[in-house]
Amino acid sequence: MKAKNVFVTGMGICCSLGQNYPEYKRNLFNYSSNIQTPIKKAKFKNGTKEVSLFVGQNTRNIDDTTRQNQRSKSLKYLFKVCDEAVYTADIDLSSQKVLIVLGTSLGGEVDGAFLDTKIKLKTYSDKDKDLFEKRTLYYFADELVKRYHIKNGNYYVISTACSASSNAVSLAAESLHSGVFDVALVAGVDELADISLAGFLSLGAINENRAAQAFGDDDGISLGEGAGALVLQTKINKASVTPLGKILGGATTSDAYHVTAPEPTGIDAEKAIKQALKQVNLEAKQIDYVNAHGTGTRANDNMEFNLLRHALPENTVVTSTKGFTGHTLGAAGIIEIINCLMTLDEGRSVGTYSDPEIYDQTLKKNPKNFIFNTSISKEFKLALNLSFAFGGNNSAVLLSQPDYDISTLSATSDELPVMNVCGWASTFMDNQKDHFYLDSERYSSFKGTQTNYCGYSYIPKKRVEGLNPKYFAKVDDFSKMAITTLKKALSSSHIDLGQFDPVKVGLVFSTSTGPVRIVSEIEDSIPKVGYSKVSARKFPFTVMNAAAGAVAQSFNIHGPLSVISAHATGFIDAISYAQYLYNYQNLDIVIVIGASQYNENSILAAEVQNEAGEKSLADGCNVVILTKSTTNFENIVPVVFNSTKFEVINEDSFIFRLKSDLVNFLQKNHISTGETIKLSANPLKDKGAFLRVLNQLLKDSVRGYHFTALGSDWTFKTGGAGEETIRSLREGFGPIVSIEASEKIGYSFLLIK
């Protein structure tokens, strides 16, 4: 295997403790030395309903002249930390092949809630239409591409709730190690939002008496807000840049246990730790420091206590910093990875905050290596960051000092493996029919809020043969759609997941929308019933990775699980992501699910963004099952995938780049000139540059290649859930290129050979 290091060359942070890294570090040591916390009570109001809670609130204004009209604080936080990280790394991203990986739980949810309220109160006007774009998760990534003038690269927006930015760091390190990119900008961001405050309060998971007490006698979190960013590189070309540390490895696993609670023994979390250590041939006894997830909830802290007592030696220093920052959700992982880097650099760790009133009891119940209300100084060489999330997602990231004598990661292959599709299914597909259609038994139509444009919602079955009916009845409709479609893919392909080690089965879930209907329902209920009385049963299904967790629990999947959000390119991007997981976590198969869901406001969004055309929006789910193996499967279709995103300057540049990149993609994958290439595409828009470039390709040969349309009978669209890829697989004879494109930021190709 090639020896390669992934260095941290830039770092930025912004939260309740500070507006930059030097200020954050100074304040963290100050607060810990004086046994204080910046977490204070703050009042929140929605309509006539109010609540006062302890939070880690960033009360200082974030100035940014380019975004003065941005309602959401998240983008300002994100720009601030990324600017600091890029400045520290002394790098010009416009001249590099760049990967952006962003972790967030909420994205632009604050803007989305504001927009929904305006529509509901009938105060919406044309001046608000930009909020339709700003409310999405992937909008932030689009803005980063523009901010740094990135013209060559790709991005992933990971939304696995509280482990999102930890998973983002792992993916960024794997991508750099594989040699696909020159540099990675990886970040995490979330702000305080009513839906989070209300949801956790309804679950009884917020500490209403004081700041959160990790591993203490209290029970509950304190929410926080902020962002963190890292620049990662394998080569440092400037003498002015000093590496700040190394990312050695990272791994994820799934509990497949419960929608909110972790598996009590921590058995699957331990597998994530072991997998991360295995990537660099290290042992647990070599870990000097652990930044624990340490939320303060009884379920998480008890699991993590059991895990750390069992999996790590007694001399490993364990602390949690959420008592100083609050739980920053999607930003928590990267903020705490920055804590690890600080500890390695300073040779000093701050202790876990414990209120003096409960300090004695806390000290009694914890082992001596769990440090509280004091700092400890020693040479820390190797650190581990742990993050856990709803849906049973476990993430472990291993870091070291920059001069630690070991290379980053290892993989099953130096080259990313060629993957085969061994199973697939769609909500729009029936094995007895040769076309895609909206089944009247499975779909019902609805009209938009302010328009006659039509949408179709998926009606799930009440039960699915072979699955636990009690559990299936409890999950939301978005999860049911995904579970049902995967069951169809497994049945039609005669794949029995029981023949595989559950930890060697991975899952990547892609969605451009997430569970919009249940999110709107919870948002609408807050001003009616109050923060503490929203549905505790429904709230967990508002997070983007709830459906993925429900799938994992339904099919006993314990391997890596991740969720990405993208505009119209998400499904092929998810397949590409699955390739990294397969290679770096030594899997047998990876399941890729693409799903979208719509409501009345989605239709209005399509109209104001000029994306309506003549087609209807339809809930939809598509599944492919990937493997490197060519044996023991009835159907094998080899695929090659490529994702390219860039700043779209104008329509001409989009057309030129797409045609040029498509031809280069075909040549790279040894498709001879003179061949006729079938094109499969389901354009997000019914007009515009993408449709024009498709028409040009079909009319003219391009550098010796001839193109023909695979055929289209679409009367609906799902915004990137992947049905064009499923249609390509059904065709069965290549070469076929499936194209997913967003006219704002780039496109992705999948080749069926």
Strand order of the largest sheet: 5-4-6-8-1-9-15-14-10-11
DSSP, total strands: 29
Structural class: alpha/beta
Number of spatially distinct domains: 3
How much beta, percentage-wise? 15-25%
User: Helical content, roughly?
Assistant: 25-40%
Under CATH at level 1, the class of the largest domain stands as Alpha Beta
The CATH architecture of the largest domain can be named as: 3-Layer(aba) Sandwich
Rg over CA atoms: 24 Å
H/I helix tally: 21
What are the key terms here?
21 helices; Peroxisomal Thiolase, Chain A, domain 1; 29 strands; alpha/beta; 753 residues; ten-stranded mixed sheet; globular
Describe the structure.
By secondary structure, the protein is α/β, with parallel strands linked by helices. It folds into three domains: 7-400, 3-Layer(aba) Sandwich (Peroxisomal Thiolase, Chain A, domain 1); 419-640, Peroxisomal Thiolase, Chain A, domain 1 (3-Layer(aba) Sandwich), CATH 3.40.47.10; 642-752. The chain is built from 21 helices and 29 strands. Strands 5-4-6-8-1-9-15-14-10-11 form a ten-stranded mixed sheet, with helices on both faces. A ten-stranded mixed sheet has the order 20-19-21-23-16-24-29-28-25-26, with helices on both faces. Strand 14 and strand 15 (393-400) form a beta hairpin. The protein starts with 6 loop residues before the first strand and ends with a strand.
Please describe the topology of this protein:
Layout: E1 7-15, H1 21-33, E2 40-46, E3 49-56, H2 74-89, E4 98-103, H3 109-120, H4 131-134, H5 138-147, E5 153-158, H6 164-177, E6 183-190, H7 194-202, E7 223-224, E8 226-233, E9 245-254, H8 267-278, E10 289-291, H9 298-311, E11 317-319, H10 322-325, H11 332-346, E12 348-349, H12 359-365, E13 376-377, E14 382-389, E15 393-400, E16 419-426, E17 443-447, E18 454-458, H13 469-474, H14 477-493, E19 505-511, H15 516-529, H16 546-555, E20 561-564, H17 570-584, E21 589-596, H18 600-608, E22 616-618, E23 620-627, E24 637-644, H19 651-668, E25 676-681, H20 689-699, E26 706-709, E27 716-717, H21 723-731, E28 736-741, E29 747-752
Parallel strand pairs: 3-7, 4-5, 4-6, 10-11, 10-14, 18-22, 19-20, 19-21, 22-27, 25-26, 25-28
Antiparallel strand pairs: 1-8, 1-9, 2-3, 6-8, 9-15, 12-13, 14-15, 16-23, 16-24, 17-18, 21-23, 24-29, 28-29
